[in-house]
Amino acid sequence: xxxxxxxxxxxxxxxxxxxxxxxxxxxxxxxxxxxxxxxxxxxxxxxxxxxxxxxxxxxxxxxxxxxxxxxxxxxxxxxxxxxxxxxxxxxxxxxxxxxxxxxxxxxxxxxxxxxxxxxxxxxxxxxxxxxxxxxxxxxxxxxxxxxxxxxxxxxxxxxxxxxxxxxxxxxxxxxxxxxxxxxxxxxxxxxxxxxxxxxxxxxxxxxxxxxxxxxxxxx
Amino acid sequence: xxxxxxxxxxxxxxxxxxxxxxxxxxxxxxxxxxxxxxxxxxxxxxxxxxxxxxxxxxxxxxxxxxxxxxxxxxxxxxxxxxxxxxxxxxxxxxxxxxxxxxxxxxxxxxxxxxxxxxxxxxxxxxxxxxxxxxxxxxxxxxxxxxxxxxxxxxxxxxxxxxxxxxxxxxxxxxxxxxxxxxxxxxxxxxxxxxxxxxxxxxxxxxxxxxxxx
Lengths: 219, 213
Known about the structure:
Structural class of chain A: mainly alpha
Oligomer: heterodimer
Number of helices of chain B: 5
Distance between the termini of chain B: 92 Å
Radius of gyration of chain B: 46 Å
Shape of chain B: rod-shaped
């Protein structure tokens, strides 16, 4: 390998790293106080080191500034987001997964919506090829955000995944709970109904072949 | 080489197999003539250079060796085998180069009608009923929470405000800003704690292989 190639690669990597840090700084400069900016840059560096996405940190800082929140409180919120991202990534990696940035964000969202780290671990293990972890966690987070109790949320999502129903049915669950709520059905009752339906479908799908339904026309 | 029909003893001398002095006197003169003839044929006369040639050549070499840029270029372009210690920063640099940045493009799902836009993004319509509002805007992770970036348009006389955005796949939080100061969650979307004592609305756009779910 030529020295020139070697050093060009190293220089490119260094420049990219600095540019990434510059991105975070550029997004925040003029929008947040200098102290808060430095905190977010530091946390973003830590996030990179831990293979976590840093965009949610920047967004939370921008959100706080847009809402006129005091910098100290924004700092706490940003640190809270960092903790959620780290927890989500840790539990998914402990389960043997190599989560993407979007999956980590979905896990952090589920935590923010009220699920526990055990719930996130269980849900990420529930995910399969037809039901990616990102969708599973997003749906679970949305259900929790709609007011479905935590344990019921996990049970409903797991039942839906195990039912063999297509992914579209899973991602449609929050809309179904919303629709039920709009007609006066509490979220937990709506979730119970949906879970029973998923379990019933799972029972049908494992019915042995050749055991056809009875012919209604046969005496 | 042309065969001169020399005596075998002379050939042995020419081949270096015996000394000239060992030849009988009558053959020595002929052997010396044969050796001269061979040397002339291969032109092995010694080359003599003028005294200043070496000085000029060395001066040229030294000037090239001390020139800064050619020397730097030779150093940079010289083939080298990286040591293990050099592989550490190399690996770090490669990791940085290969690092895939996650772009945070917000998207909303809600109960808005979604239409496929560009790859892995959808058009989502946001609506808010605010009959007394003089202006309504939308801010969220998709527009970097910029209150001025996405104003809604009042449609009809009933106080309905709306805007349509192209959003990429993912999950996004947002809120409406009424009259520039009141943050209002979307009544048609799930909400989560925003960490500041308020609620953010949440919208999810799920696309798998470019297909909206």
